[in-house]
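Notes, p. 3: input format for complexes.
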Amino acid sequence: MKVTFLGTGTSQGVPVIACDCDVCLSSDSLDNRLRSSILIEENDNFLVIDTGPDFRQQMLRENVKRVDAILFTHEHKDHIAGLDDIRSYNWIYKRPMDIYAEERVMEALKIDFHYAFTDFKYPGIPEMTLHEISNNPFEINNIKIIPVRGFHHKLPVFGYRFKDFAYLTDINSVPENEIEKLKGVKVLIVSALRKKKHLSHYNLEEALALIEIVKPEKAYLTHISHMMGFHKEVSLELPHNVMLAYDELKLEI
Ligand SMILES: [Zn+2]
Ligand SMILES: [Zn+2]
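Output follows (253 residues plus zinc ion):
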């Protein structure tokens, strides 16, 4: 299984519009992040988790010719805003995009992209087949996926486990029984917004605490804001098995 970090930032990512802090002005490409999303490649299937505002740019950068399905973690704009751009995949492959999300997220998609769900559709609008998921394992083209429930302050979000790795973003708590589902992963990808505490996101210390419980061989931090500091400096402070992820990083798991 191959994982590509399409983006590792947030809407307070780097650079932030009109922000002139040192991190936003950094010339180090490792400090330059698009909104968080990953591409998963397995047996010639291409899955994307979340389509933020940078989706189009990310697909062009990675030269992604095909997307078989999109999974959503939650409905915040930095995770769904780019969904309209699936229309070129619709057009090339002459089929709707398979979308996997829980009911509440589906309802948000139907509001934000209302024009794609009307009875009389204007030609060329994005086409989707919605697959509602709950907190039970499911499969996409024989790839087994286990949803992992986490909380983004009070908002329930889904992380996803794929065999040996799991991806969890925009959370600041995971119930104990859900942490059990993460046991045995070789790679854990988890969000860490910044060092200072935040209402709805793990900060660095809290993400490291989860990693300490799950004990993956390797962990990668994502959904990083400009307040985290410079990639190179923060990297030196992390335990040996933990890395800050960066855009374009590719893993073979
Ligand atoms: Zn969010
Ligand atoms: Zn987010």
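The two ends are 5 Å apart (CA to CA).
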